Amino acid sequence: MRDSQHPAKELAEDISNRKGGSTILPILFELDRSVRKYRELWPNLDFYSAAILHDLGVATNLFTPMLLGVALWAGAHTLRSRSAITD
Q1: Distance of CA 6 to CAs 24, 43, 45, 55, 69, Å?
Q2: How does DSSP classify residue 40?
Q3: DSSP assignment, residue 57?
Q4: Other CB atoms closer than 10 Å to residue 49's CB: what's the count?
Q5: Measured between alpha carbons, how far is 13 from 21 in angstroms, rounded to an integer?
Q6: Does the N terminus or the C terminus of the chain have fewer Cβ atoms within 10 A?
Q7: What is the DSSP letter of 15?
Q8: 24 with 51: CB under 8 angstroms?
Q9: How far apart are CA 80 and CA 12, in angstroms?
C-alpha cells in the first residue's frame, strides 16, 4: 500500500500533530524510508498502530492483546458472516 493510501499512517500523523509531536513516529518514518531503499516493502497496519497506541497513552504491554483481540474479533465476524450466507 502506498503512503498516500495508508489510513493508519494518516491517523498516526493526525494524532501526533494534535498531541504536539510524537517521539516514536519520526523513528517509524525513517525506518520505513530506510527499508524501502533496499526493497519495495510497504508497512502493514500494525506498523503505524504502535505509534497511534503510544501517542494515545496506551501502555506498551497492552499493544499485543489489543491488536490480537481486534484480529480475533474480525476473524470470528468473518466466519459468522460466511455461515449466514451459506445457511
Answers
A1: 18, 9, 8, 18, 22
A2: -
A3: T
A4: 18
A5: 9
A6: C
A7: H
A8: yes
A9: 31
- Spatial separation of the C-alpha atoms in residues 14 and 8, rounded to whole Å: 10
Number of CB atoms found within 10 A of residue 72's CB: 10
The per-residue pLDDT for range 71-81, each reduced to its tens digit, is 777 777 777 78
**pLDDT tens track for 1-53:** 455 557 888 889 999 999 888 888 899 999 988 998 888 888 877 788 888 88
**Separation of alpha carbons 47 and 9, rounded Å:** 9
DSSP 3-state of 87: coil
For 18-37, b/e burial (b = at least 16 CB within 10 A) is: eeeebebbeebbeebeeeee
* C-alpha cell belonging to residue 17: 500533530
Answer yes or no: pTM beyond 0.70: no
Q: Cα 35 to chain center, whole Å?
A: 17
